[in-house]
Specification:
The complex is a heterodimer of chains A (about 90) and B (about 230).
Chain A lengths: L1 H9 L16 H20 L8 H10 L2 H13 L7
Helix pairs in contact in A: 2-3
Chain B lengths: L14 H32 L12 H29 L7 E8 L2 E6 L5 E5 L21 E4 L3 E8 L4 E5 L4 E5 L5 E6 L4 E6 L12 E7 L1 H14 L1
Parallel strand pairs in B: 1-5, 4-10
Antiparallel strand pairs in B: 1-2, 2-3, 5-8, 6-7, 9-10
The chains are: A mainly alpha (about 90), B alpha+beta (about 230).
Subcellular location (chain A): Mitochondrion
Keywords (chain A): Disulfide bond, Mitochondrion
GO cellular component, one term (chain A): respiratory chain complex IV
Chain lengths: ~90, ~230
């Protein structure tokens, strides 16, 4: 299971088509992957497991989200004002 | 790019634009034929001494001039819908680029592998070199590999803008807080120009878009160089 994830991350080109977000508006796609990355990190480190699989979500949100959005959200997470539920 | 006294579209640089071009030729031909026919009928009606005061109805011609327009409309609608669905096909892009509109410049982000971002300002007229195009050139172009499916995510930092490149057949509004996706393939190497297409303040006419399609090795060299310079 983790091998295939490693494969996918190794062969990563760009964010693939996501059927949950088939339309022009990809805002949610970016935000969802950002949330999923942080939630994955939180869940896996709570169980003391390897957080490497979470890298997929990070690659995807880095591809999709503007750098300024990511910087703003990172800052909000640091000072506790991030609006999403992680 | 556009040139003086241009009548038609710019040469297509993507498959979708080629389709749009041909469809436009088809629709325009239908429109011209109908207009020529109507003009002929008008001239014929006006320039005859014959009169006919006794026709009350005529089933045959009523049927013809109802069915024929319906058929013509279908002949326009079918290719149109074909292209519409073609544009919506699921494609698997090789590269994702973010184009963010600001007042008054574009910034491009290539973040699939490293964090490459740069601004693209118009070259002022007094700084143009001979042979460069007024109000169209930019200091940093959006370089892409040719013949690769590219995904562009368009957004804005402040007010509404619109990212348009006519020869690729693309126009996508840049809305603050929203990521609008468009995709294209550049079928040939070259430089493709566009201009901001949503009024955004004083310098709305002076924030052009320049896309440069190059072979993959050149693209890789360019992106390495841009990362070093940043």
């Amino acid at each position: 299971m983790s091998d295939t994830i490693e494969e996918k991350i190794k062969n990563y080109r760009t964010a693939p088509f996501d059927a949950r977000f088939p339309n022009t508006n990809q805002t949610r796609n970016c935000f969802q992957n950002y949330l999923d990355f942080h939630r994955c990190n939180k869940a896996l480190s709570a169980k003391d497991q390897d957080v490497a699989p979470c890298d997929w979500y990070q690659r995807v949100y880095k591809s999709l989200c503007p750098m300024s959005w990511v910087a703003r959200w990172d800052e909000q997470i640091e000072n506790g004002s991030f609006p999403g539920k992680i | 790019m556009a040139h003086p006294s241009q009548l038609g579209f710019q040469d297509a640089a993507s498959p979708v634009m080629e389709e749009l071009l041909h469809f436009h030729d088809h629709a325009l031909m239908v429109v011209l034929l109908i207009s020529a026919f109507v003009l002929y009928i008008i001239v014929a009606m006006i320039s005859t001494k014959l009169t006919n005061k006794y026709v009350l109805d005529s089933q045959e011609i009523e049927i013809i001039w109802t069915v024929l327009p319906a058929v013509i409309l279908i002949l326009i609608a079918l290719p149109s819908l074909r292209i519409l669905y073609l544009m919506d096909e699921i494609n698997s892009p090789l590269l994702t680029i973010k184009a963010v509109g600001h007042q008054w410049y574009w910034s491009y982000e290539y973040t699939d592998y490293e964090d490459l971002g740069f601004d693209s300002y118009m070259i002022p007229t007094q700084d143009l070199l001979p042979g460069q195009f007024r109000l169209l050139e930019a200091d940093h172009r959006m370089v892409i590999p040719v013949e690769a499916p590219i995904r562009v995510l368009v957004s804005a930092d402040d007010v509404l803008h619109s990212w348009a490149v006519p020869s690729l057949g693309i126009k996508m509004d840049a809305v603050p807080g929203r990521l609008n996706q468009t995709a294209f393939i550049a079928t040939r190497p070259g430089i493709f120009y566009g201009q901001c297409s949503e009024i955004c303040g004083a310098n709305h006419s002076f924030m052009p878009i320049v896309v440069e399609a190059v072979p993959l090795e050149h693209f890789e060299n360019w992106s390495s160089r841009m990362l070093e310079d940043a």
